Amino acid sequence: MRSPALRHVLTHLITPLLMCLGMGLAYMGAFVTPEPNHLPVAVVGAGPQAKVFAQTVKDTAGDKLEVRTVATRAAAVDLLKSRDVTGAYVPSTKAPELLVATAASDMGATAVEKVFTPVAAKEGVPLKVTDVAAPVADDPTGQGLFFLLIALSIGSYASVAALGAAGATLPMRIRALLALGVSAVVSGIGALLAGPVFHLAHHDLTSVWGMAWLYSAGILFIGVGLHTFLKRWTTLTMMVLFVMLNFTSSGGLFRPELQNGFFGTLHAFWNGAGFVEGIRSLLYFGDDGFARNVWTLVVWLLAGLAVTATAAAYERARAPRRAAVLPDPAPTTEQVRQQVEEEEAEEEVEETVGV
């Protein structure tokens, strides 16, 4: 291609086009056709009749459901509050009841209701649905935490574009300190949104801020470190890691039992899932599973610190070699102007795409 300017533009168009493809594959693959995939449910009853009924439900649903029996209604409630099951059916010829926990997953509760409503209809009686863990009135679907995750993610990975491009000439220790400061600001904004603004968190707001800081700091340190090696491809990489794979596996809209195995597997260890499930544990389920989700975010933060430390060592090792190969003649004014314009264009493209 003869025109350097046209080649430059076409090269930069690769990133948004790959984002378009990746976002389409990720979001449509995760969200367009949600259906039960080994969805865990329970049938309450201790006798042979309950076991036969549970097996009948399992045989009818196939791989869509994982059905177990529990002896008492109280045991079923405990399983729901520990999020070991998504719904529990209490058979009765007069008043069948379905127990759900919508704070864990509104979509999951809807899915199990669709499964057991026809079962009760066969008995000619209406199904009573009891919510044993409802979200707060300010967040009736429980999906506010997912949108909080989006806000924190955008603030974090978009800041990586600014720190990486505009701050590329700064020493790594300065960029690391800036990442630390930005993570504190982003998490503070998150706590403000979750608390006083939208009232998603009616208690433990300090812990919510701490989880938000761990989440944001992990993203920022990973991004700042990666920029040393990936340069303008950092933004695309961050989008893949913390949007395409992150939002879709977080469980904020659909828990893994309503997704295919790929996103369900990511849910077990990805940082977005650690944040969403950790806040759910904190706000609605008596801290059940909270420590494990905190450790998930800690591991991601440690990974970010490791990437940043590696990048710092690489830059220190590279600096003497770069100084040794610098040409003796000073560049002309025109060369300097062209270089500045190219660098400014690079920063603008990267920051715009990042946002």
β content, as a range?
Answer: 5-15%
**Helix proportion of residues, in percent?**
55-70%
Low-confidence stretches: 351-355
Biggest beta-sheet profile: 5 strands, mixed
Give the CA-based shape: elongated
Mean pLDDT: 88
Give the N-terminus to C-terminus distance in angstroms. 30 Å
Structural class of the helices, strands and pairings? alpha/beta
How many strand units? 5
Order of helices and strands: HEHEHEEHEHHHHHHHHH
Number of helices: 13
Question: What gyration radius follows from the Cα positions, in whole Å?
Answer: 25 Å
Q: What is the spatial order of strands in the main beta sheet?
A: 2-1-3-4-5
Strand-helix topology:
Blueprint: H1 4-31, E1 39-44, H2 48-61, E2 65-70, H3 73-81, E3 87-90, E4 97-100, H4 106-122, E5 128-131, H5 144-165, H6 172-197, H7 205-230, H8 234-244, H9 246-249, H10 261-267, H11 271-284, H12 290-324, H13 333-354
Parallel strand pairs: 1-2, 1-3, 4-5
Antiparallel strand pairs: 3-4
